[in-house]
Design a protein that fits this description.
With 317 residues, this protein is an alpha/beta fold. Helix content is 38%, strand content 18%. The radius of gyration is 19 Å and the shape is globular. It catalyses: UDP-alpha-D-glucose = UDP-alpha-D-galactose.
């Protein structure tokens, strides 16, 4: 059993690769290293450096493969507003290229890395898979289109698929792999503290217990294991739901993250406070009941453990 992980040199992809190998599943990685890091790919894992728009390279990478975990893409929602054509090319056109190659090679199983971004700014504080998608960026729209592509290709062929809608992915399951995104809260805090600077909280007047916004954070190692469970289920012929939310169902406030950072690092700091950013919801968490039922999904890390693993992996030199 061998699976191709697209984007396998990225933060999430590298964890998925490790989870598959730990479960005894061979892996091939394809990544153009536009945001991934070659050193994140473990020794001994076949690595194809190519973009999914390169159909020839994709077909070669699919040789002997039983399924695909598709994580590759342009993931920055805010920047996607400024670069919509680039976002659609990397997230939609490239996925079409991948699905064409899979059909040609008779690879019939795929787990798609979707996003909570498909929901936009939901009115309901608890998001279920029945919550109506309302993406507010080209990034979120491209992920929703990706789900549609899978639905339509499955109707036309023997494709077996599921899409995992992640919320805020944090932490590290390997001290050599870290989140380098300049837009995510954990790396922002780690970077500022490493430089001796103080993080900032945007918005302290939300209708939440401590006045700061509450979001759903999931540990990347738990997330990676969900991909393995989905792959095993598809490989066994089990019919999965078309989409699954991966979230804790509870949520953590920004101030609680700051408190955890202070406890974990031993750096005594008081975050500065600023006004809310436009569009920031006060509380959004995911109902993960379906994933718990079908994928044995659960968030197993406390907030301190989440930040501790992120801090351990963060490069401080």
């Amino acid at each position: 059993m061998t699976w191709l992980v697209t984007g396998g040199a990225g933060y999430i992809g590298a964890h998925v690769v490790r989870a598959f190998r730990s479960d005894g599943i061979d892996v091939v990685v394809i990544d153009d290293l536009s945001s991934g890091k070659a050193e994140f790919v473990p020794d001994g894992v076949p690595f194809v450096r190519a973009n999914l728009l390169d159909g020839t390279a994709v077909r070669e990478a699919l040789d002997g493969v039983d399924g695909v975990v598709h994580l590759a893409g342009f993931k920055y929602a805010g920047v996607s507003v400024e670069r919509p054509l680039h976002t659609y090319t990397q997230n939609v056109t490239a996925m079409v290229s991948l699905l064409e190659a899979m059909a040609e090679k008779s690879v019939r199983n795929i787990v798609f890395s979707s996003s909570a971004g498909v929901y936009g700014t939901p009115r309901d504080e608890e998001v279920t898979e029945d919550t109506t998608p309302d993406p507010r960026s080209p990034y979120g729209e491209s992920k929703l289109i990706g789900e549609w592509l899978l639905r339509d290709q499955a109707a036309a062929t023997e494709l077996h698929h599921t899409s995992l809608r992640y919320f805020n992915v944090v932490g590290s399951g390997d001290p050599t792999v870290y989140d380098a995104s300049p837009y995510n809260l954990f790396p922002i805090v780690c970077n500022l503290l490493t430089q001796g600077k103080v993080p900032q909280i945007y918005g302290t007047d939300h209708p939440t217990p401590d006045g700061t916004s509450v979001k759903d954070y999931v540990h990347v190692a738990d997330l990676a294991r969900a991909h393995v469970a989905a792959a095993r289920a598809l490989e066994s012929g089990k019919t999965l739901e078309r989409v699954y939310n991966l979230g804790s169902g509870t949520g953590t406030s920004v101030r609680e993250i700051m408190d955890a950072a202070r406890r974990v690092t031993g750096i005594d700091f008081a975050p500065t406070e600023g006004p809310r950013r436009p569009g920031d919801p006060s509380r959004v968490v995911a109902n993960g009941d379906l994933a718990a039922r079908d994928l044995a999904w659960k968030n197993t890390y406390t907030v301190d453990e989440m930040f501790a693993t992120a801090w351990e992996a963060w490069p401080k030199g």
